[in-house]
Amino acid sequence: MKKLTIDEMHRLSAEEFRKAEKLPLVVVLDNVRSQHNVGAVFRTADAFRLKEVVLCGICCCPPNQEIHKTALGAEDTVSWRYYKNTLDAVHALQEEGYTVYAVEQAHQSRTLEMVASDLPDKVAIVLGHEVFGVQQEVVDASDGCIEIPQYGTKHSLNVSVTAGIVIYTLAQCLLPR
Predict the structure, then answer these.
(1) Residue 33: is its pLDDT beyond 70?
(2) pLDDT (tens digit per residue) in 106-142
(3) Which of 17, 35, 38, 102 could form a disulfide with 66 if both were Cys (CB 3.0 to 4.6 A apart)?
């Protein structure tokens, strides 16, 4: 089996990407401190052609060399905006018609599979700080919480790994069939 070349993959150009229809899925990063995690989220957002990435609080914004190391240019194709306060971003998205889910372990959280089986038309997911998670006030303002079931001794996943799992799962439900 021979690996595909870049030409054989028929990827969109940056200009084609900007013009292409996007999935109605937004990722909100709530005080994610690692620039590499921010870059990885941009790269995953590009892979699934998401609507945008919203950076909040202490998140670093493009242009940034450390973000670029993991984003590999996706920070230039994926739309993004910045809010100093994550709560303001959540309220703005809700006003735009998005159902906002914090990805967090919480009372009454729903598993990723449960949410994916009954997905609204426009979805935003909030991913939190690497140590502290999503701020409680943001959890309170969200329309619900998504939890990824885990079966080992650790109680959390890296934020960029979590983003990949959640984005992939939700994208499968949002992609046209």
Answers:
(1) yes
(2) 999 999 999 999 999 999 999 999 999 999 999 999 9
(3) 35
Name the residue among 66, 68, 88 with its Cα closest to residue 77.
68
Q: Which domain holds residue 134?
A: 6-174
72 belongs to a structural domain: yes
Rounded to whole angstroms, what are the CA distances from 18 to 51, 55, 78, 94, 143?
10, 19, 8, 24, 29
- Given a contact cutoff of 8 angstroms between Cβ atoms, the answer to whether 32 and 125 are in contact is no
Instruction: Mark 46-84 as b/e (b = at least 16 C-beta within 10 Å).
Output: bebbbbbbbbbbebbebeeeebbebbeebbbbbebeebe
Residues in the chain: 177
User: pLDDT at residue 176 above 80?
Assistant: no
The CATH number of the domain where 166 resides is what? 3.40.1280.10
The end-to-end CA distance of the chain, in Å, is 28
Residue 1 lies in a domain: no
